Amino acid sequence: MIGRARQIRKQLVRAFVGEDYPRLIRHNAVERPHYGYIVFHAADLARRLGLQKISVLEFGVAGGRGLLNLEHHADRVSKITGVGIEVYGFDTGMGLPPPEDYRDLPYIWQESNFKMDQEALKKRLTHAKLVLGLVKETVRDFVAKHDPAPIGAVSFDLDYYSSTRDALEILLVEPERRLPRIFAYLDDIYSSDLGHVTPRTGVPLALSEFNAAHPDHEVAQLTHLEFAYGPYRMWQRQIYSCSSFAHPRYNQDVVKADRQLRL
Ligand SMILES: C[S@@+](CC[C@H](N)C(=O)[O-])C[C@H]1O[C@@H](n2cnc3c(N)ncnc32)[C@H](O)[C@@H]1O
After folding, report:
1. How far is Cα 128 from Cα 56, in angstroms, rounded to an integer?
2. 206-238 residue pLDDT tens
3. Distance between Cα 128 and ligand 1 center (Å)
4. Measured by CB atoms within 10 angstroms of the end CB, which terminus of the chain is less buried, N or C?
5. Atom 3 (ligand 1): residue with closest C-alpha?
6. Which atom of ligand 1 is nearest to the CA of 63?
7. Is residue 172 situated within a structural domain?
8. pTM
């Protein structure tokens, strides 16, 4: 019943908004609006910076529904913005690895949860590439193996502290391989009824360690979304930006407006 009501709501929004993608996202009228948001705004930023191509990454693919959705958003956004978009999905392909310790919350996640049917998923993907193996290893040789366009958006959905810690290293590739501000979605930044993340466990710990170790980079929440993007949904608090203050393009004007506030 709720699903049907949501469908009708989406159809109504589409009827009023048409193909205005940012507004469709704003009104939650696309599947996985959080993916739509990070892909659209990464491509928009790239266009403003004069770049023709970006990469968008999903860490944690599992069955592959998210990656298929990311591919779909990439195709639509590419048509709208004219920016080419490569899509990559990182996963072991065999489900969760063994947890390292209590910081991975082993009381809710177990080894081998979320196995992938690799052949079935490969048949459904049209251009996204699977990067299979432990992220600790695949992140290290990602650039050398895939020669990716600059990274513009990343979804982190690896469940564990240790896996997110390892995946965040992707933000340290050489500057020409990434935008000065990368849009990120953090699936596991909040607790659930049974899974209680704290500043010393889970994704919050991985983030604070990353920020403390890399003073030129900061992964921080985009704080305007829940006010600008009603009606309120949880994803609006799961969107982050990875700023790289020493990136050669960090200070490049991306607004180019003669703003004046007259008396
Ligand atoms: C919750 S699932 C991802 C769900 C997916 N994003 C979606 O929306 O359908 C988490 C995935 O992270 C992967 N994963 C966790 N730790 C990993 C690691 N260290 N290396 C590679 N993959 C990992 C697991 O294999 C699992 O498939």
Report:
1. 10
2. 999 999 999 999 999 999 988 877 667 899 999
3. 16
4. C
5. 60
6. 9
7. yes
8. 0.94
